[in-house]
């Protein structure tokens, strides 16, 4: 489990195409410290498994399903990525519950700078809109954020200077894709209420 608090702005150093999958090598001295084969690291909000680790870099295999459902397939050598290690037991839940299971992708629609922050409008797949509410939580490229405004096919977020400086969201331009993970609690509530509505009334 992750919390959406990015620990490090990493970089893709190699991409190996393997037919229906890809192997990425990523630089991240902070998140690789103490990492072992089989450990998890979130890359732009996608939970990946460490294959090899050394010299501040790690490799991870990305299957076709993940490439299709996320924006990782658009990464190339030199791409910057948000990196986060799983939350340790007893650690602080600084953001919200993040699984690292991307629900879909959106795209930056517009950026509106202000004196001390920036409002960013992001497109939202129709099938995810019911899970996004004003002042609720959403994960964008692995960053835990609060929804400012929620529309039928978009939402807006307010980015503080720290987020702009230390994550990829400070670099994204209109048209750039972003990974989205909605609040898992909303999905479970929907499933439970739906199952309850289908119960035999006897």
From TrEMBL:
InterPro entries reported in the protein's UniProt record: ATP_synth_asu-like_sf, Lumazine-bd, Lumazine-bd_dom, Riboflavin_synthase-like_b-brl
Pathway(s): Cofactor biosynthesis; riboflavin biosynthesis; riboflavin from 2-hydroxy-3-oxobutyl phosphate and 5-amino-6-(D-ribitylamino)uracil: step 2/2
Group of enzyme by EC: transferase
All copies of domain Lumazine-binding, residue ranges: 1-96, 97-193
Pfam families xref list: Lum_binding (PF00677)
Lumazine-binding repeats: 1-96, 97-193
Keywords associated with the record: Repeat, Riboflavin biosynthesis, Transferase
Molecular function per GO: riboflavin synthase activity
Function noted in UniProt: Catalyzes the dismutation of two molecules of 6,7-dimethyl-8-ribityllumazine, resulting in the formation of riboflavin and 5-amino-6-(D-ribitylamino)uracil.
Protein name: Riboflavin synthase
Upper classification of the organism: Bacteria, Bacillati, Actinomycetota, Actinomycetes, Kitasatosporales
């Amino acid at each position: 489990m992750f919390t959406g608090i990015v620990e490090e702005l990493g970089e893709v150093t190699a991409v190996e195409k393997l037919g229906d999958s890809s192997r990425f090598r990523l630089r991240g001295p902070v998140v690789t410290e103490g990492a072992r084969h089989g450990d998890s690291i979130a890359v732009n909000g996608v939970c990946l498994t460490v294959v090899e680790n050394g010299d501040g870099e790690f490799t991870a295999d990305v299957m076709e399903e993940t490439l299709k459902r996320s924006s990782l397939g658009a990464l190339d050598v030199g791409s910057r990525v948000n990196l986060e290690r799983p939350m340790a037991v007893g650690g602080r839940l600084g953001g919200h519950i993040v699984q690292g299971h991307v629900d879909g992708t959106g795209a930056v629609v517009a950026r509106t700078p202000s004196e001390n922050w920036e409002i960013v409008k992001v497109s939202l797949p129709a099938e995810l809109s019911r899970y996004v509410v004003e002042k609720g939580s959403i994960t964008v490229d692995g960053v835990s954020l609060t929804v400012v405004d929620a529309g039928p096919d978009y939402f807006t977020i307010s980015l503080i200077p720290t987020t702009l400086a230390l994550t990829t969201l400070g670099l994204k331009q209109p048209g750039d894709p972003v990974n989205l993970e909605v609040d898992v609690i909303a999905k479970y509530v929907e499933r439970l209420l739906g199952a309850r509505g289908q119960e035999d009334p006897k």
